[in-house]
Amino acid sequence: MGGLREFLLWVVLFTFSLAIFSAESYAQEEAVEITITEIMYDPVNSSEKEYVEVFTGDYNNLSGYLIADETARSGKKGNLTELHAHASGYALIVENGSTLTGVQASFYSVAKIGRGLNNDDGDTVFLFFPNGTLLTALNYTNLSAAKQGNSLQLINGTWKAAPPTPGLPNQAPTSGEPAPPEDVPAAENIILSPYLTSQIYLNVSYDDLFRIEIAPKACNETDYVTVAYAIREETGKLLKNATFTKAVGCSTRSNTGSFIPLAPGNVMIWGTIVESTILEDNPTDNTINFSVSIVDPATLPCDVGFSITMNETLFYAEGEKIYFIPKPTNTTFPFRIDYWIEDLFGKIVKAKVTTTNTNQKSWTAQSPEQDRVYFLKAQLYPMCQDTNASDNTAEKMLIVLQDSLALTSDASAEKPSSITITEITPAEPRFGDLLQVKLDITKGTTSKYAVTLWAESKGRKISAETKIHLREEDTEYALLLPVQLFPKCTEGPQDATLVVEGLDIHAEKHFTVDEEDGTFCSAEDSANNDATGQQETSADSSTDFSFSVLGLPASPAAGELLPVSVFLQGDAEPHDYEVWSYLYRGSKCYSCREGTIPREELLQAGILEPFEEKTLVFQLPVDKGMGDGDYNLKVKLRKDNQKTLKELTETISIEAAQTGEKEEKTAGSSVQSSFTGNSVRAISPDGPGMVVYESNTAKAQALTPIVLLVTIGLLALVLLRK
């Protein structure tokens, strides 16, 4: 027995040592934060070599770390070998044979950076931990440093071509140095303003408190802004103190803080920007205070009616999707809607669902064994004092037939389509803003499916086109689509028209667009401007071809349609394009109708004219059987029939379908594309760290010390009992 105890003691000591070693190794890996700050991808002289400069803050030994470019990402990667250590915080990754000397930085050699950085179409630099886990990556499409003797440098949060500064802080060229062949953009500024209205209601959840705007800004580039905010009563009592971080293109207001008022009265809301990836020198509009009045809606008189709109057809086939929209006559006040479906005898066939929005709902028709008559019923509960509650209920009768052939004569009848523009926000837009357009569209039996939106003024387009394909016939759609106004220098407001065309229908809604607020235009620009068209307002000789995802719903549900908006930015040449999107996890597609359609089913193709901006919208059918969890959204683009595809990948959380229909949520966040296939805003050396990707291997390593320590505890317990 003594021999066994001695053996177990040795096992405990060995396991404990291994746990400490694993914990230290993992802690070292987690502690490293690296920012790529300079790339020399096209040395002028053949004797010079490519290099990548990184900033680590303090000295970190990067020996054994791996580097690759796009072509070598999945193959053999370069292994870093330390040649010289320096405490400056800068490190240079140089190719073997580099002649760089006298640089105040750590040096690491590698046989080749990938297979040689691309000077013609751009490339991506990947850095990996020694175990192969991705540490950081940077994609570049700015080729202005090519054949100029310049390198590409991160200067004040923007990538620019400038004379090389290896091992030194990057600076914009002075007048005595050769300037790179590109325009220097104006300094970016972050503006924090209130989005919450001055009057809100008791016991209602509000998730959009602030509006964050960055100007001037390329909207397809992503910055990160962290805001701290506090909410206090007039007496000074603190109700909430919190922070949030948002990914921002040009502007955002969704999910910018949250508040549920629990008592009537007045509150003060304070907010300030505490951290961002913008290096601005004008923080005067980074802090705001505003007052909000909280009102109990039960004390306010109102008269709210209620109805249900749905397919006009009375008969439906077994398994057919039935769409309907609950419509209160007044949505100014908070409300709750309960809806359910029962048969002719009052038996519930679709459990009661509660919702607080007017998004389109759906139900799959069921008719076991024989034809059935059903009633869709709904009850509105306004939170105000409704003076007439008699019109707060609504119902629709529908008949589900077992034999779908009985619907042949009805289905063959031509049904009309309609398009209604219900709302344009913001209510007072400016040139350069991103409009959000609410549409109610009914697609009848027409075979046409493309719908295009744009804004125009005086016969000229003043926005990029947004295009969506609606494939399902005899269907009602409630849509919220983006339309990007071009920046433009004008004097005073200008009358404009939002145009929607498609399904053989032309719809218009007039609105007023105000002059740009000065971030893009100087006074001289405004005086000399002559109502130029799209080419003059958006064309820029330094504009690169790019594409990005404009926004995604917060958490779509299985069985629903997932709207995906893809923004295309043209360059100086016309390009053919093919774009498609799908949802997947692992090797399985979850937007392919249970594997019955290919991933390219929703492909959209066309021609992008020089400097044209276009938004494509995809409605992905999310499979019903998906469970809760994170899935991957893939967007693929083929430009000019090239064999190599560009890709964007986003992570999106899906909620499993409930027994009754899940309440739908409004799309609000503005998440930009990942680094693959698109230019990425690099985080500044002083900015926050960010996990780009965490592999299963990395997660397992994180758990290893915990598992080992638990094992030690169990063995010790056994020894004590002996």
Concise overview:
The protein contains five helices and 45 strands.
Number of strands: 45
Q: What is the C-alpha radius of gyration, as a whole number of Å?
A: 29 Å
> How many structural domains in the coordinates?
6
Helix fraction by DSSP (H/I, runs of at least 4): under 10%
**Average pLDDT level:** 77
Largest sheet: 8 strands, mixed
Enumerate the spans where pLDDT stays under 50 for 5 or more consecutive residues. Answer: 21-31, 175-184, 522-542, 659-699
Number of helices: 5
Strand content: 35-45%
Overall form = globular
First and last CA, distance: 9 Å
**Structural class category:** mainly beta
Describe this structure in words.
By secondary structure, the chain is mainly beta. It has 6 domains: 2-29 and 700-721; 34-183, no CATH class; 189-295, Immunoglobulin-like; 306-411, Immunoglobulin-like; 415-523 and 534-538, Immunoglobulin-like; 542-678, Immunoglobulin-like (Sandwich). It is built from 5 helices and 45 strands. The strands form 10 sheets. Strands 32, 33, 34, 36, 37, 38, 39 and 43 form an 8-stranded mixed beta sheet that branches. Strands 5-7-6-2-1-10-11 form a 7-stranded mixed beta sheet, with no helix packed on it. Strand 30 and strand 31 (434-443) form a beta hairpin. The longest helix has 30 residues, at 2-31. Mean pLDDT is 77; it is low at 21-31, 175-184, 522-542 and 659-699.
